[in-house]
Structures are given as C-alpha cells and as structure tokens.
Amino acid sequence: MSTKEKIQEEIEVLTEEQKNNEIVLFNDEVNTFDHVIETLVYACEHTPIQAEQCAWIVHYKGKCTVKTGSYEELEPRCSLLLDAGLSAEIV
C-alpha cells in the first residue's frame, strides 16, 4: 500500500464519522412571519431572504431544517429560537 493510498483511506474514514445534526423549526399559530424571520436572522445568521424562505416552508410544510452542524454549534442557536418563543429541536 502506497503512502498516497493510506492517506486517502484515513480521510474517508474521518469524513464518515462526522455526523451533522439539524435544527428543525416547527409551525405554530402564535408567531408572526416577521418575528420568525427576525429571529432566524439573529439566531441562525440567515440572510433576510433565506429566513423568509424558511418561514414560508414552515408555514406550508409544517417544519423546516434551518441550520445544520455539530450539536455543540447548534445548541446555543436552538436555545435562542426557543427563548424567542419558536418551536424547534435538534435532531
């Protein structure tokens, strides 16, 4: 086995072990579109257009993945969404 093949094999193994989690935002009958959009911009660093698109997806589909990453990265963002009165969870 050459050195190049061994390095490639190690990279593939590391890539497979990394698991991304998702913040899923759920629809509710309480929050306004403006509140959802402003909160996504603040908590998830979305652009206003991206946040509006997510708000519409949540409205019509009932839920939308709004951010992906490691649990450690997502936990504080999900807490901000929950503190703002939105329904979200990390999956």
Automatic annotation (TrEMBL):
Presence of keyword Protease: yes
The source's domain of life comes to Bacteria
UniProt keywords (A-Z) are: Hydrolase, Protease
Q: Where is the Adaptor protein ClpS core domain?
A: 17-83
**One family name in Pfam for this protein:** ClpS
Molecular function GO terms recorded: peptidase activity
User: Which Gene Ontology biological process is one annotated for this entry?
Assistant: protein catabolic process
What is this protein's record name?
Answer: ATP-dependent Clp protease adaptor protein ClpS
According to its UniProt entry, this protein's organism is Planktosalinus lacus
Give me the gene this protein comes from: clpS
